[in-house]
């Protein structure tokens, strides 16, 4: 294992993040505050509690997941797409490193950035609502796994994308609707029975449900199923990335 | 001298069906400078990219330092440095970080002294904290070279490094190449500047349409294929070549003021002595005489044309 190379990629990617640290920090704080103003105050005033948890506190896990997933995808996809776009990918392809080392470097950095944003949102949320974390270890595990798995998805998208438009396509048209319809801001038990069944086909439901369980012990789906879903999703992404590097799809001619 | 790079029957066919390399075989000796010449689209960059691992070969084998570039890619690639043809740099990163990043990618621990030496040698030390986007084109090209040298490669590929750079930078690069040669680094250089190949290469390879047309010692190539031109300036211009001199295949230039005679340096007789006598007999008075060695460019163009005529 070329640990020095992994560390170099990681540092290089993190440097990009630190160059825009203010923007990276302020943006999630503002957007989280806005969510609390809109959802917490406007809608929350009409929904007193959800399964015994105040609506403001109920949406916190969903808010964190929403940001972490989007950040994981965008950071990783941009991280690998940008070298392709400007041509510096030649350095990675001609270096004595394998795909696992490249992925660890890029995905590790993207997951770290997403984790940082997730923690910032959690801290910001604590300023608005009383947060309780029933299963702290499980919370950390879900958070880290989600950061990693969505950074893996972002990495795949970054390799697949041929232009900046495609880079935005999947996050905006696929991931955002799935997250919003995945119980970020409501319990799926609040939906009519038919839509409850339909929602179960949304993989994001399992992630948000598991994460919310780690806070309040409340879950829309069994916690084991949530763990299985995130493990399966991670494995699927790893499999796709392994195939990409084996065949050189869209990276090696 | 052992071979540092061994390329056997290398073929590259793209999905479109285009064959960029057609069974290329080429051995490059340790410590030599090989200049690879060829017109645009000849396969020079594809050949380099395939050796470096950027492009996957369709067929054939490549060994660098005795290591197979596919099955032993770590060992093989760790020996190689690459300066690409195009300027590819992370625009927002500083020169210092960019060069250290390249070293790190090759698994080498930080060595600030070495990186400083490289930057100083390339006149980049003053720019170490500048972002790539703030540098001129020539400076960016120096950064590419610094990045390629950061992990102390034993084989260096320079893909048209002096294309579009000023004279000063070209001289600096030649100096760097000479220093590397002194350290025993094997250098493969592609260039459009034939005088560059002539000046610094130990051997010259000519590639066209994905095939190596020849690889020869620079001096031997010049000697084997070299022709000379004798230019005879006359005291008084003539309207036509006198009938008595028709057998020499002379041409007139400068409105009849200069007679041009092409001859083969390797021929048993050049015919110059006899020509001089015949000129005197024809009553022509000479003012000046010049000889000119045919350049590598003439040889190169000749080879490529012959291949094209053969294909036709």
TrEMBL record, chain A:
Gene assigned in the entry: yadH_1
Residue spans crossing the bilayer: 21-43, 55-73, 140-161, 167-188, 200-219, 225-245
InterPro entries named in the record: ABC-2_transport_permease (IPR052522), ABC2_TM (IPR013525), ABC2_TM_bact-type (IPR047817), ABC_2_transport (IPR000412)
Domain ABC transmembrane type-2 residue range list: 19-248
A single Gene Ontology CC term: ATP-binding cassette (ABC) transporter complex
Family label: Belongs to the ABC-2 integral membrane protein family.
Membrane topology label: Multi-pass membrane protein
Protein name in UniProt: Transport permease protein
Compartmental location: Cell inner membrane; Membrane
Gene Ontology MF term list: ABC-type transporter activity
Keywords, in A-Z order: Cell membrane, Membrane, Transmembrane, Transmembrane helix, Transport
ATP-binding in keyword set: no
Automatic annotation (TrEMBL), chain B:
Sequence ranges assigned to domain ABC transporter in this UniProt record: 5-234
Keywords for the protein's UniProt record, in alphabetical order: ATP-binding, Hydrolase, Nucleotide-binding, Transport
GO molecular function, one term: ATP hydrolysis activity
InterPro entries linked: AAA+_ATPase, ABC_transporter-like_ATP-bd, ABC_transporter-like_CS, ABC_transporter_ATP-binding, P-loop_NTPase
Enzyme class (EC, first level): hydrolase
Enzyme Commission number(s): 3.6.3.-
Family matches, as PANTHER family: ABC TRANSPORTER ATP-BINDING PROTEIN
UniProt protein name: Daunorubicin/doxorubicin resistance ATP-binding protein DrrA
């Amino acid at each position: 294992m070329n640990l020095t190379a992994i560390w170099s990629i990681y540092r290089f990617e993190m440097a990009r993040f630190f160059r825009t640290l203010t923007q990276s920090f302020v943006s999630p704080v503002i957007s989280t505050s806005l969510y609390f103003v809109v959802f917490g105050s406007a809608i929350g005033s009409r929904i007193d509690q959800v399964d015994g948890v105040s609506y403001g506190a109920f949406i916190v896990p969903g808010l964190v997941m929403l940001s972490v997933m989007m950040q994981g995808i965008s950071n990783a996809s941009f991280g690998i797409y940008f070298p392709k776009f400007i041509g510096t990918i030649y350095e990675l392809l001609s270096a004595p490193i394998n795909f696992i080392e490249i992925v660890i470097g890029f995905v590790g950095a993207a997951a770290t950035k997403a984790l940082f944003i997730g923690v910032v949102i959690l801290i910001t949320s604590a300023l608005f609502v009383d947060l309780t974390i029933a299963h702290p270890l499980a919370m950390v595990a879900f958070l880290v796994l989600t950061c990693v798995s969505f950074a893996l998805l972002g990495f795949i998208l970054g390799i697949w994308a041929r232009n900046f438009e495609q880079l935005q396509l999947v996050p905006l048209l696929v991931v955002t609707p799935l997250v919003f319809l995945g119980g970020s801001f409501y319990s799926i038990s609040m939906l009519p029975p038919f839509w409850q069944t339909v929602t179960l086909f949304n993989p994001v439901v399992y992630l948000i449900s598991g994460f919310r369980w780690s806070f309040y012990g409340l879950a829309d789906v069994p916690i084991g199923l949530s763990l299985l879903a995130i493990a399966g999703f991670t494995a699927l992404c790893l499999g796709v990335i392994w195939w990409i590097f084996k065949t050189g799809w869209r990276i090696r001619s | 001298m052992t071979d540092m790079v061994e390329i056997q029957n290398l073929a590259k066919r793209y999905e479109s069906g285009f064959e960029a390399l057609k069974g290329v075989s080429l051995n490059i000796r340790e410590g030599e400078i090989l200049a690879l010449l060829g017109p645009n689209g000849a396969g020079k960059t594809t050949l380099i990219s395939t050796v470096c691992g950027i492009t996957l070969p369709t067929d054939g084998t490549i060994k660098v330092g005795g290591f197979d570039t596919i099955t032993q890619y770590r060992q093989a690639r760790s020996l190689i440095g690459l300066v690409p043809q195009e300027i590819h740099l992370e625009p927002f990163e500083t020169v210092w970080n960019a060069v250290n990043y390249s070293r790190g990618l090759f698994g080498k621990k930080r060595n600030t002294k070495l990186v400083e030496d490289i930057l100083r040698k390339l006149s980049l030390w003053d720019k170490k904290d500048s972002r790539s986007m703030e540098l001129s084109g020539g400076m960016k090209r120096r950064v590419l070279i610094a990045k390629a040298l950061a992990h102390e490669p034993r084989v260096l590929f320079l893909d048209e490094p002096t294309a579009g750079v000023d004279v000063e930078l070209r001289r600096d690069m030649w100096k760097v190449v000479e220093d590397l040669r002194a350290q025993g680094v094997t250098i493969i250089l592609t260039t459009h500047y034939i005088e560059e190949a002539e000046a610094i290469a130990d051997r010259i390879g000519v590639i066209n349409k994905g095939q190596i047309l020849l690889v020869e010692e620079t001096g031997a190539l010049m000697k084997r294929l070299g022709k000379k031109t004798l230019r005879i300036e006359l005291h008084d211009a003539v309207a036509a070549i006198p009938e008595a001199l028709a057998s020499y295949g002379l041409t007139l230039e400068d409105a009849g003021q200069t007679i041009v005679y092409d001859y083969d340096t390797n021929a048993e007789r050049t015919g110059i002595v006899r020509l001089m006598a015949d000129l005197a007999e024809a009553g022509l008075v000479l003012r000046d005489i010049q000889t000119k060695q045919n350049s590598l460019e003439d040889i190169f163009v000749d080879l490529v044309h012959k291949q094209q005529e053969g294909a036709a």
